[in-house]
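Journal club prep — side note

Before the paper discussion, L.F. wants everyone to see what a predicted structure for a comparable chain looks like in token form. Sequence:
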Amino acid sequence: MLPIPAYAFLPIVAACVATMPARAEPEAPSQANNWTDLRVALAKCWTIPAGTDGSLLAYRFGLDKTGAIRGKPRIIARQLKGDAEAQRRYQEAADAALAKCFPMPVTSAFGAILGESPLYLRFVNTPPTSAYQINSNITLFAPQ
């Protein structure tokens, strides 16, 4: 009996694969495990409106150990540029970033730290400069 070449099985394998149901691999939940992870996730939630160059909005708020905002974020600084419509859009974009990002999935170890730390979060529509970025003091600059 002659050996069957491997390429002879290709049509059979292709037919089997084609009839298999598609399965999407489940994605592991993305969890913030430190302050850097939190900053990166926050930056992805913020969309900067046009015509707001030079604007700044800063919040103070707390997070619980599950990554949810405790209470209502308090605005502690506001410097809005542009016409009234641009200022309104900037305020809405910052508020939307908070609504979109939180509750943020966090590890239990990082959640224990969050439950003890007030956050100071600044949305700044200027080119990046040196900023006080230690732990819960977070400045997000507009991407350039």
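L.F.'s comment for the group: Helices lie at 10-19, 35-45, 84-101, 108-114. Keep this in mind when we get to the figures.
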